[in-house]
Amino acid sequence: DGVTEVLAHHNDNLRDKFVEIPCSEDYDSHKRFAGCTPRKCGRGVTDAVITREEAERIRRIAERGLSLGGSDGGASILDLHSGALSLGKHFVNLYRYFGDKIQDIFTEEDFALYRDVRQRIQQRIAQVFGISSSAMYLTKPTFFSRMNSTGAKTTHDEYWHPHVDKVTYGSFDYTSLLYLSDYSKDFGGGRFVFMDADSNKTVEPRAGRVAFFTSGSENLHRVEKVQWGTRFAVTISFSCDPEHGIRDPFL
């Protein structure tokens, strides 16, 4: 698939890696928010914000939640904010569907860890892009994903198409992905691919690794199809528009 450069190998332990790229014109058609709207665009990878042990604890939250459902196809999601959970070919609201049984699945400690991890990722993005953390708002959808090699049953299972987050979701200004499993050990395929005009730049997931980037079309991307094993990640995204802000989930 053309020239591919690996931005981050799974066996690297990266303190911080950042590549600045010119911003697209996407932001010009949206209201600008001082201290937040990207003026510097790019993509970064760090293994120094979340520990592997924390990533394993977060993955167990995802596993417990997804054990309640799961897609018939190869891609399942769990959104602790809205309650959206893949179930067969559809989605259910976890909180309405399971009611008080949720207290047996998740604990306050789970949600506290989730909030803490989100805050640290938000602070690192703000630091790298030179913006104010307090001017960023958590936005939807923010969700766990579990991908395996099962064939797609609906369009929701087709995670591998190239897309631009700002176009797909509208509210996104900064996107981050926290990986919860290891490329080549837990799964094959499933690398994250930035699709640039001259070449592809890939990120190989590893537990605790955070990849983050401005959400405009300067960062067209896709995920390779998972060939074997199971790939876990959590997508955590931020908007500069307070109207698109959502609260942290709570039990």
Structure overview:
With 251 residues, this protein is α+β, with helices and mostly antiparallel strands. It has one domain: Jelly Rolls. 20% of the residues lie in helices and 32% in strands. The strands form four sheets. It has a seven-stranded antiparallel β-sheet with strand order 2-3-13-9-16-8-5, with helices on one face. β6 and β7 form a beta hairpin. α1 crosses α4. It starts with a strand and ends in a 12-residue tail after the last strand.
List the helices and strands and how they pair.
Blueprint: E1 4-8, E2 17-21, E3 41-46, H1 52-66, E4 70-71, E5 75-78, E6 84-88, E7 90-93, H2 94-98, H3 102-105, H4 108-129, E8 137-147, H5 165-169, E9 174-179, E10 187-189, E11 192-195, E12 200-203, E13 210-214, E14 221-223, E15 226-229, E16 231-239
Parallel strand pairs: 1-12, 4-6
Antiparallel strand pairs: 2-3, 3-13, 5-8, 6-7, 8-16, 9-13, 9-16, 10-15, 11-12, 11-14
Helix pairs in contact: 1-4
Beta-sheet strand percentage?
A: 25-35%
Helix content: 10-25%
What's the order of the H and E elements?
EEEHEEEEHHHEHEEEEEEEE
- Named CATH architecture: Sandwich
For the record, the CATH class is Mainly Beta
CATH topology: Jelly Rolls
User: First CA to last CA: what distance?
Assistant: 44 Å
- Quote the average pLDDT: 96
Indicate the low-confidence ranges by residue numbers. none
Q: Report the count of strand segments.
A: 16
What is the number of independent domains?
Answer: 1
Biggest sheet strand order reads 2-3-13-9-16-8-5
Multimeric status of the protein = single chain
